[in-house]
Amino acid sequence: MLQRTLFRASRQAARSLPRPHPFTPIRQPAAASLRWYSETPAAKEGESTATDSKPAEPSETTQLKEQIGKKDKEIVDLKDKYLRSVADFRNLQERTKREISAAKDFALQRFARDLVESVDNLDRALTTVPSDSLTSSNPDLVTLHDGLKMTETILMQTLKKHGLERIDPAVEGEKFNPNIHEAVFQTPQPDKEDGTVFHTQQKGFMLNGRVLRAPKVGVVKNS
């Protein structure tokens, strides 16, 4: 009896509850409760991914530094070439000056060698006239001698301007110098020291400080 009464009460209570809609959607679980799993397997320890293996591109600052370094190297090379060119040009100038000077000296030397023969002939003409004949009784000879002497003086002054000088070591009693003089003979001279030049057989000439023709001299030798 009691069981029936409980069964009826439960049926009435079930009828009083609202019935669910036939198309009520099933609620999905909250998003926070969802779990997402990657299909790509995880990389093992010690292995790098594909993105890590690509080299990093150089930055703009690095590129600028490399360009500046190249420009600095080019500047150093160009400066070195410039200095070398200047040095070569200066050496060429000095060498050209020396060659021009040597050519002028050589040309003047050939001319001077041919000219000294004429100077010797003029000197012989003056020395062949004895001094006792240069008197008022021979006015023409005196005039000729004076004219030749003046011509010789002017000629020697002109030659000296161009570096050609005549040397006569016997006039000043110089010591014999084998680098300048040419000894032709030796003889004793009691009143002179040994090695003194006492006679000039042929006068010499110097061209720009160098011996063009050595004078032929006689040297004192007492011992």
UniProtKB/TrEMBL annotation:
<dbReference type="GO" id="GO:0051082">
    <property type="term" value="F:unfolded protein binding"/>
</dbReference>
<dbReference type="InterPro" id="IPR000740">
    <property type="entry name" value="GrpE"/>
</dbReference>
<protein>
    <recommendedName>
        <fullName>GrpE protein homolog, mitochondrial</fullName>
    </recommendedName>
</protein>
<feature type="region of interest" description="Disordered">
    <location>
        <begin position="1"/>
        <end position="68"/>
    </location>
</feature>
<dbReference type="GO" id="GO:0000774">
    <property type="term" value="F:adenyl-nucleotide exchange factor activity"/>
</dbReference>
<dbReference type="GO" id="GO:0001405">
    <property type="term" value="C:PAM complex, Tim23 associated import motor"/>
</dbReference>
<comment type="similarity">
    <text>Belongs to the GrpE family.</text>
</comment>
<dbReference type="GO" id="GO:0051087">
    <property type="term" value="F:protein-folding chaperone binding"/>
</dbReference>
<dbReference type="GO" id="GO:0006457">
    <property type="term" value="P:protein folding"/>
</dbReference>
<dbReference type="GO" id="GO:0042803">
    <property type="term" value="F:protein homodimerization activity"/>
</dbReference>
<dbReference type="InterPro" id="IPR013805">
    <property type="entry name" value="GrpE_CC"/>
</dbReference>
<dbReference type="GO" id="GO:0030150">
    <property type="term" value="P:protein import into mitochondrial matrix"/>
</dbReference>
<keyword id="KW-0143">Chaperone</keyword>
<dbReference type="Pfam" id="PF01025">
    <property type="entry name" value="GrpE"/>
</dbReference>
<dbReference type="InterPro" id="IPR009012">
    <property type="entry name" value="GrpE_head"/>
</dbReference>
